[in-house]
């Protein structure tokens, strides 16, 4: 978690991360996600939150896992 940058990729509807130097990019979430927009990281709780464009929903995710809960 430390030493990473996190972003939403609206071209492929995914949440991604990479090392601060740009290497090691990986997709964290790309299922059950529609048009991700805003993103926030809670470093203390090791959680990620994002919004879906055009909705009033905020989605949570624990950063120690890849992918979404079923």
Describe what you observe in this structure.
- It comes from Pan troglodytes.
- The protein has about 70 residues and is mostly beta strands.
- The chain has one domain (about 5-60).
- It has strands at about 5-10, 15-20, 25-30, 35-40, 45-50, 60.
- A 3-stranded antiparallel β-sheet has the order 1-2-3, with no helix packed on it. A 3-stranded antiparallel β-sheet has the order 4-5-6, with no helix packed on it.
- The mean pLDDT is about 85.
How much of the sequence lies in strands comes to over 45%
Q: How would a textbook summarize the main sheet?
A: 3 strands, antiparallel
Count every helix, treating DSSP H or I runs of 4 or more residues as helices.
0
Estimate the helix proportion, in percent. under 10%
What is the helix/strand order? EEEEEE
Write the layout of secondary structure elements.
Blueprint: E1 4-9, E2 14-19, E3 26-29, E4 36-42, E5 47-52, E6 58-62
Antiparallel strand pairs: 1-2, 2-3, 4-5, 5-6
LDL-receptor class B repeats: 3-45
Organism: Pan troglodytes (Chimpanzee)
Pfam family, one: Ldl_recept_b
Q: Which features would summarize this protein structure in a list?
A:
6-blade_b-propeller_TolB-like; LRP5L isoform 6; globular; 3-stranded antiparallel β-sheet; mainly beta
In short:
It contains no helices and 6 strands. It is mainly beta and 70 residues long.
């Amino acid at each position: 978690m430390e030493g990473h940058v996190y972003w939403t990729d609206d071209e492929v509807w995914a949440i991604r991360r990479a090392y601060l130097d740009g290497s090691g990019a990986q997709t964290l979430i790309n299922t059950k996600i529609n048009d991700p927009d805003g993103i926030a990281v809670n470093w203390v709780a090791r959680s990620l939150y994002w919004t879906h464009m055009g909705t009033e929903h905020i989605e949570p995710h624990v950063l120690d896992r890849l992918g979404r809960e079923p």
